[in-house]
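2024-03-11 09:14:02 DEBUG pipeline.ingest accepted 1 chain
2024-03-11 09:14:02 DEBUG pipeline.ingest length=109
2024-03-11 09:14:03 DEBUG pipeline.predict start
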Amino acid sequence: MGVDVLLMRVTQPGTSPRRRRLTEIDAHADLTDTFARLCSGTGLPLLSRIDPYGSLALTPADMDQLLDELAVLRGRTPDETDRTLLDEIARLARGCAADPSTQLCFEGD
């Protein structure tokens, strides 16, 4: 029931969505379901949309809000291991924010 976080490069020659390709640049696998657990019930708009059974793709335009919400969640999290995980997700989000040809994908099991 974990949520893997994937930083993907989007290439789409032309306007046809059929030619759209996603290439993984970087990733964090949520093997212990920690990120899914931390996101559930946060009351934060973007993090609340992360579904442990579904998929969610965010664009670089969403990264400022995501980084703000991750900082709020990090402040609420007492466990250092969980905070380290949130720092890793924030690193991926900063990478997405820096490159307009990317998106951050959250993939549930």
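2024-03-11 09:14:41 DEBUG pipeline.report The CA atoms of residues 41 and 97 lie 25 Å apart.
2024-03-11 09:14:41 DEBUG pipeline.predict end
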